[in-house]
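User: Show me a protein chain along with its predicted structure.
Assistant: Here is one chain, sequence first, then structure tokens.
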Amino acid sequence: MDKTELTLVLPGLAVILEQKINASIIPKYLAKIISKGQFKKDSIGLSRVLFNHFSTEPCTATDLPMVNLATGRSRTLRADPCYLHADRDRLLLFADNIDLSKEESTALIAEIQPLFDDFGGILSQSSNNEWLLDMQELPELNFSALPEVSGKGVDGHLLIGRDQQDWIRLWNEVQMKLYASEINQRRAEDNKLPINSVWFWGAGQFEAKTSPYLQVQGLSRLLSLLAEKTDTSLIKNSNFSVMSLTSGKHLWLAEQLDIDHDWLQQIETFDAQVLQPLWQHCRSGKLMINVEIPNYGSYKLSALDCWKFW
């Protein structure tokens, strides 16, 4: 009979564990996993963690093939709306929670579309916050995945390649056009972030491997796309129960930890409701666990690890 194995992905926990001052308040069973598990450091982010679970080869490029996964297209880029903030000598990019309405999205696309005409590009929206740029041919450039740039400085993530000069010029022209938009003026009056740039990314081909997972669970659009692409059974909720685990491999994606709102209470609740029963099953030899913490590393735990004296 196949063993029962669980990979549990805990996004948002890295920033807590990186602060050594928090070590003394980590809840009981998470602390046990950290102290007894076999640790492997890995700094990749959540999107890349999920991609690598379903890709034939690890995604090592700076970009992630989001467009090909979501649409099957090979000559389309994401050109997602974002906010660039000047901070001393660098530009910080923000693309999360920009609260863009459908009407605003449609109008902004119409304003900047003429800039793409000479490039043979047609801009459209797949959602309010996700824009697609259909091209006759993709430029020869290396892109950087937006999830790995958002919240950071853009230096080190800018376009590189043969067509770099033309596309950096295009990027700057888009920024100037958006800066003058009346829509952004109204957004500023409503205390909303202006949409003063786009970010090009999402290129490349996604090669899916045969899924190793009997079932995956979690609330994530990316996880849903990956499960669909690999014909993997998906449970679209985060109500995890150890009793639902059967022989074979499973993947659970926990909700993003909200570090701005009583993060300790969130971890303590998860520790009692999820990690405690998982620990008990692992300790009794019924389960093997791999806890993955994006931007930090992973802990592999077997029954023998649980019985360590330290």
